[in-house]
Amino acid sequence: MAAILGVCWFVQRQQRFLLWLCSAFTLTAVSLGIRSLLPFELLNHHVVAVSALYLLGAWCLAMGFAERRNASTHPKLALLTSLITLVAVFYFTGINLYLPGRLHAFGLGIAVILLLPVSDVLRHERSKDWLDQTLLWSYVAYAVFTMLRPLLVSIFGPAGLGDAMHPNSAYWETTLISVTLYALLITVLLCAITIRATIDQLRDERDHDALTQILNRRAFHEAAKRRLADQRLYPMAVLAGDIDHFKRINDNWGHDRGDQVLQLVSSIFQRHVRSQDLVARFGGEEFVLLLTRIDLLGAERLAQRIRLELSSDNTTLPPGARLTISFGIAAITAPHQLAEALKEADGLLYSAKKSGRDRVYLPDRMYPDICFQNTVPQDSSAASHF
Ligand SMILES: Nc1nc2c(ncn2[C@@H]2O[C@H](COP(=O)(O)OP(=O)(O)OP(=O)(O)O)[C@@H](O)[C@H]2O)c(=O)[nH]1
After folding, report:
1. From the CA atom positions of the chain, what is the Rg in Å?
2. 26-37 mean pLDDT
3. CA–CA distance from 301 to each of 157, 265, 308 (Å)?
4. Which residues form the GGDEF domain (predicted)?
């Protein structure tokens, strides 16, 4: 199971809690292995070391649990608890041989270490996800059971805790079964959580443009279908925008600067739209917006605002250069009109480019807006002025 969690961590490196859990399982398995294989007399000589390994495994389990939910394991308290537990184990083994005392102290120590992050987690718990909830409550149940195990065995075990060092004792069998079942349960839960996180990540990468993090063409069409099916969102408008002379920006100031411009444009788009609207990069310097509950004039006003904000930006290009963008807008009043509207907006965008750029074109009425003189230098030699 430690190996399975190790593989899960290898797949999802950013999920560091998997590495903590892998270490927890390894340490627990090693200490249980030593405990199973060492003869009774030898075990008594090494019981403090074996207990220390087991406590370290418990702390790794707590770390994994805490890390996943940004809680603290309170390391100083954990260390203090471990030291007190080890002193008690030593006392009940080497000074005053009393097995029940040793087992109670050990169970209590492990439970306290496991429960240290729980109050933090409960205070900040927001997730309603059933996998997360099962993980949380099975962890708490395991910690409580670890504390109560010696007591339960002393009450219900046929020989109480008297034969607890015997490999076939009720105490030892309960320990092995509970640890194995719990490890199995959290391995299955964590595998499910990791698989789901991987799928979410792949879906996110599939749907979003890597540079700007906005929707790509495929995801735009998928999301647009859902918007178009909702009658409450009409009328809609499609807005096709294309940065003017973008090639010159790349040529004059390099590809990185071009990338920054693309990021700036997409962030301005996202700032101006509403939650139901869609913003997508269709490729290169071409963007498409689906605006909901808006008529053509409203869409035009929005496009003009974006155009003016972009042209007044002085954070991305060197002083003296101005960023401009052209738009074509088309209306949508019924679900089947998307493809047609995209074509129309694209045609209007082309006309806007042809007639001088830095303007917004609508169907029927062409707006020869104030056409500012484009100040992006015409050739790469101009870059030396900046
Ligand atoms: N930096 C950067 N450049 C890109 C990216 N994708 C495409 N390009 C560049 O965008 C430029 C697009 O150039 P054109 O299609 O000629 O368009 P333009 O120069 O904006 O001219 P108009 O659209 O007519 O105003 C090309 O030089 C592409 O190499 C990208 O992700 N990052």
Report:
1. 32
2. 89
3. 79, 17, 11
4. 234-365
129 band by pLDDT with thresholds 50, 70 and 90: confident
- Residues in contact with 324: Cβ distance below 8 Å, sequence separation at least 6, in sequence order: 243, 244, 245, 307, 310, 311, 357, 358, 372, 374, 376
Q: What are phi and psi of 357, to 5 degrees?
A: 70, 180
User: Could you tell me whether strands 360-361 and 278-283 are parallel, antiparallel, or unpaired per DSSP bridges?
Assistant: unpaired
Identify the residue whose tokens are 């199973």: 36
Which homologous superfamily is 217-377 in? Reverse transcriptase/Diguanylate cyclase domain (3.30.70.270)
The distance of Cα 116 from the centroid of its chain, to the nearest Å, equals: 25
Which of 211, 216, 242, 246 is the best mutation target for the ligand 1 pocket, counting ligand atoms within 8 Å of the beta carbon and taking the most? Answer: 246
- Condensed to tens digits (0 to 9), the pLDDT of residues 164-197 reads 777 778 888 888 898 899 989 988 888 888 888 8
ipTM: 0.96
d(CA 259, CA 353): 21
* Ligand 1 contact via 341 beta carbon (within 6 Å): no
Per-residue pLDDT tens for 244-260?
Answer: 999 999 999 999 999 99
Per-domain residue ranges of the chain: 2-207, 217-377
State the pLDDT at residue 374: 42
For the Cβ of 358 lying below 6 angstroms from any atom of ligand 1, the answer is: no
